[in-house]
Amino acid sequence: MTQYKFLESFKLANGVTVRNRVIMPPTTLRSSYATGAVTDAELRYYQLRSGGPGMVITEMAYVSGLGKTYVGQIGADSDRQITSLHKLAQTIKAEGALAVLQLSFGGRIAQPAVMPHEEIVGPSALPGHQPGMHTPRAMTDAEIRQSILDFGQATRRAYEAGFDGVELHGANMYLMQQFFSAHANQRTDAWGGSESERMNYGLAVLDEVIRIRDEITDERFIIGYRQSSEEPTEIGIRHSDALRMAKEIVKRPIAYFHLSLKDAFQTPFMDKTDLEPLYVKYQRVLGGIPLFVAGLLRTPTQVEELVQHGVAGAAIGRELIVDPNWVQKVQNSDEKGIRYALSPSDMMLLGIPDPLVPWLMTRFKKGLVVSTDEAFDLTVPWQYYR
Ligand SMILES: Cc1cc2nc3c(=O)[nH]c(=O)nc-3n(C[C@H](O)[C@H](O)[C@H](O)COP(=O)(O)O)c2cc1C
């Protein structure tokens, strides 16, 4: 059997042991009840995938009604959600993985349909860069301060529900990233202006979450921070900006830092002259805080290469959707048994909830191998192959 380093345990910065270096990154299922409570379909999905990875980070949960992003999202916005969150935490932990709840606030990329009066909010009244995106209302100072407290209260709920920790969604164009981006944030108050002022929101959220963890007095409660390193717009975040913010983040007691990339080995896409992989740049600034990296990791060879280069955790997203037993197959010297293509006939077997299918076949299709395109009629959900 190959002695892969990624199958060995490691320690997070707060001393918690993770049983191996495979991380399941957040994967939104869009399958919760309208109240934000988790459904049995979601529990089954997580149960099937928690037997192998060292840590399972859940899909993003909204911290308040104003922070909701899409229909079918998990809620962490009130104490009424604790029972539902407890089921999710227990389902993951029963299979041996650490359970981490991702917390998010959608901001200007939210679906208007889930917002009060269909009005989305953001740092400034500036729409996202993709065609057809809606213009948000600029948040008031009071709303901004309340949202920071909401992240803290959602953290307390995660703890009370039995999660091992939380991850702050500072990546993928969600509100925490929007505040850092000059493309989204043109404020002139305490929350915008210079680069360091644009960092204020993300750092204030992190400080509040750390304050709550101190109140709980459980240092083993994990706090992770997820970041994207670049934006594709002319005005927007460049990797050097993101690295400066990462430096500020790791001055705080976080347990790990999670880099969200399209390809884990990529170099900066907004600076084609720079040929150094982004994960190497992050390793230099993180000062020993464990780094997780996500992006198109599929084979044991790729995962091992990343880990051999000193990356603490390899986050495998779509490949764990396609093969929930990826880790067990490697552990059992059964690499030939790993499946790399998603067959429409296996949706039920893989516990993939119906609302995830159109999402996978559109926005997340690039990089996902599907055995046949012909079986999908996205307009008639109940006709997905079984
Ligand atoms: C269906 C789907 C839903 C996702 N939902 C989230 C999410 O809730 N939060 C998040 O930070 N990233 C989310 N992501 C991004 C993944 O965590 C991961 O970074 C991305 O898929 C790249 O890894 P991969 O190439 O291994 O899939 C999602 C990805 C997919 C495919």
From TrEMBL:
ATP-binding recorded as keyword: no
Source species, domain of life: Bacteria
Keywords: Flavoprotein, Oxidoreductase
A single GO molecular function term of this UniProt record: FMN binding
Alphabetical list of InterPro entries matching this protein: Aldolase_TIM, NADH_flavin_oxidoreductase, OxRdtase_FMN_N
Ranges for domain NADH:flavin oxidoreductase/NADH oxidase N-terminal: 10-333
Keyword Oxidoreductase: yes
Protein name listed in UniProt: NADH-dependent flavin oxidoreductase
Organism whose genome encodes this protein: Weissella muntiaci
